[in-house]
Every structure is written in C-alpha cells, then in structure tokens.
C-alpha cells in the first residue's frame, strides 16, 4: 500500500469516527430531552392561579389541570378583577375587611363598592396565602397570573420596579397595573421560592381599539416578568384568539370579551403546552 492509498484509507476512518461520534452525541442529547420530559410528573404537583372573569371558576385553568394532571387546583380569580389597587383597598383578613365582590353594575351601596375595591391582585394573593396557611390548599408548585384586561392605568414600569421592597412602593404606583403586578408576583415568589411562576398576557378581544391597549399591557407585563425573572406566556399573540375573526359572538368569544367553551379550551391547551415546555 503506497502513501496515497494509506492517506485515503486514513481519511475514510476519520470520517467514520466523526459520523459515529456525531450520531452518538445527537442520540445522547435526544435521550436527555426525553428523560427530562419523563421526570416532570405533574400529577404530584399543585396548581395555583389568579385572574379576572376569563379565569374565574373552571375555565382555561380546568383544562390545564386536566391535560397535565395536576393533583390540586387552587383558583382565586374573581370577575372584574384588576392588578391595580384602589386608594381604599383593604388588607385581606383585617379587622374591617368587608370581603371581595366581582360586581360591575352601577350601585350606590358603600359596602358593595368597598368589596369591589378589594377585588384586586394584592387581596387575591393575600387570600391565596391564607388558604394555604390554614390547610385548605397545599403549597403551589406552579402559579399562573392571567389578568390585565380590566386595568385602565398601565403605569410606568421603572416606577413599579423601583427598590427591592414592593411594600415600599407609593400608593400612586400601587394603583397602576404594573405596580399591582409587581407586588402580587413578588409576594408569590418570596412566599413560595420553589414555585414556578408565570404571567399569561391578556387575550385579544373583538375590539381593535381595546386590543391596541391590550398590546401595550402585554409589553409592560413582559418587562415586569423579565425583571422578576418569572415566565411569560404571550397569550395575546399566540393562543389562537384574534380580533380579526371574532364576530362578537363567535368563534371563541361569546360576547366579544369572554371566551366560550371552545375559547376556554383553546386557551387551556395553549397554556398547558407552555407550562409543559417551560417547566424546570
């Protein structure tokens, strides 16, 4: 065998070795992904969430729990809820606390008005923590915030993220969407440090003008999620509900705002997929 033949033979062996090691590395990487997915057993985990009328009760969150098989479902969402506090929002469980109401029709009843002013993320989260502490529900492994549709004042992200202590935020900042969001999210991540927390952006509705504001809210909430290092799901732009095809009664929104059964399931499937793919 001359030198040229030896060189050709050597090159062939090198190619074979490279191909083999490359395939082996790809195979090992694929096995690692599969093993990671198998290890995530949601049936041993507990799911918590907060939101407004799009989340309250057994809507998209029930679909998430059913698909992923969570052991428990702790939902403190209330219709008409906001991230932002009011100037007179009470502390949950305080001596004068009158409760929470999802009412929205015009009223002069002072107690009902106070209850509506307590229908905010801060009070919901205080209630959630109280229910865990009294043994009604277990500590959450995963928590999803899905609100913002009812907030009118977005606020300034820089103001909302000022300092380390959310309780030190001014009353004016806490009365904005981003201020309320910062307080509620940070309360969950500090109370339950092993819980994976996610923000689900507000969905599109059947009104183009409202959706322009909804996009602004989604962008602001994304900035909050980045700073607090929690997950963010672009439900506004990815869940399949779009103003462009909504008539006001169909296909996914029953009244141009609230998802019908099909819309709830669509949201749930999207969020279940996002949780499954992003959990660590």
Protein model, in words:
The model is unreliable at 14-25 and 27-36 (pLDDT under 50). The chain is globular. Strands 2-1-3-4-5 form a five-stranded parallel β-sheet, sandwiched between helices. Helix 7 packs parallel to helix 8. It is 48% helix and 8% strand. The protein has helices at 3-39, 60-68, 110-117, 121-133, 157-160, 171-174, 177-191, 208-228, 235-238, 261-278; strands at residues 46-51, 72-75, 142-146, 196-200, 231-233. It has 280 residues and is of the alpha/beta class. It has ten helices and five strands; from the N terminus they run H-E-H-E-H-H-E-H-H-H-E-H-E-H-H. The protein starts with a helix and ends with a helix.
Features of the shown structure:
280 residues; alpha/beta; five-stranded parallel beta sheet; 10 helices; 8% strand
